[in-house]
């Protein structure tokens, strides 16, 4: 029996449902948590994950913004917001959010990798290589950074380095 005043319990049950793929049940539990503790940044962040998984991206953005409003140092929320902006083609806004993540945590490898990917897509391969190498320096086992670096090298005409990075990506992804 859940203590009806324990928001953390509802949030944790909601997260468990989310991990199992029961998004409607997750949403209901997280709403119960927010009824009890409407200013809990972690629960708003969890809501974003569920709403995004349900395809409700506008609502997900609102939850991320609420998480950030409640906790201006919530790096994961900035990162997810940057990713959604990237998906929407809001590239400058995405880079801004990823840079904020790096400002908050200089070792947040995903943000470097995401900026590197954006630089690749903009044809800024030299800049991409620099930032992706930084990501790999931080965490040599982060597969996406190797994949993105391979893409940058390929487009720079360095096929050998590209193939090496893609090979590392495949090894890390298995």
Describe this structure in words.
The protein has 174 residues and is mostly helical. The protein has ten helices and no strands. It has helices spanning 7-20, 23-36, 41-53, 57-70, 75-87, 91-104, 109-121, 125-138, 143-156, 159-173. The protein is elongated.
Give a brief description.
The chain contains ten helices and no strands. The protein has helices at 7-20, 23-36, 41-53, 57-70, 75-87, 91-104, 109-121, 125-138, 143-156, 159-173.
Largest sheet: none
Average residue pLDDT: 96
Q: What kind of oligomer do you see?
A: single chain
How many distinct beta strands?
Answer: 0
Strand content: under 5%
The amount of helix comes to over 70%
Uncertain segments:
none
How do the helices and strands line up, and which of them pair or pack?
Elements: H1 7-20, H2 23-36, H3 41-53, H4 57-70, H5 75-87, H6 91-104, H7 109-121, H8 125-138, H9 143-156, H10 159-173
Helix pairs in contact: 1-2, 1-3, 2-3, 3-4, 4-5, 5-6, 6-7, 7-8, 7-9, 8-9, 9-10
What key phrases describe this protein's structure?
174 residues, mainly alpha, 10 helices, elongated
């Amino acid at each position: 029996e859940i203590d009806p005043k324990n928001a953390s319990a509802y949030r944790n049950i909601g997260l468990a449902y989310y991990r199992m793929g029961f998004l409607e049940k997750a949403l209901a539990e997280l709403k119960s948590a927010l009824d009890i503790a409407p200013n809990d940044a972690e629960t708003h962040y969890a809501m974003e994950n569920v709403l995004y998984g349900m395809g409700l991206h506008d609502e997900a953005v609102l939850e991320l913004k609420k998480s950030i409003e409640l906790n201006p140092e919530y790096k994961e929320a900035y990162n997810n917001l940057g990713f959604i902006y990237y998906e929407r083609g809001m590239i400058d806004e995405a880079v801004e959010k990823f840079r904020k993540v790096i400002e908050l945590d200089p070792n947040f490898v995903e943000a470097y990798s995401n900026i590197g990917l954006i630089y690749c897509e903009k044809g800024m391969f030299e800049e991409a290589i620099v930032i992706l190498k930084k990501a790999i320096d931080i965490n040599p086992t982060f597969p996406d950074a190797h994949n993105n670096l391979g893409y940058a090298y390929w487009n720079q005409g360095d096929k050998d380095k590209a193939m090496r990075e893609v090979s590392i990506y495949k090894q890390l992804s298995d």
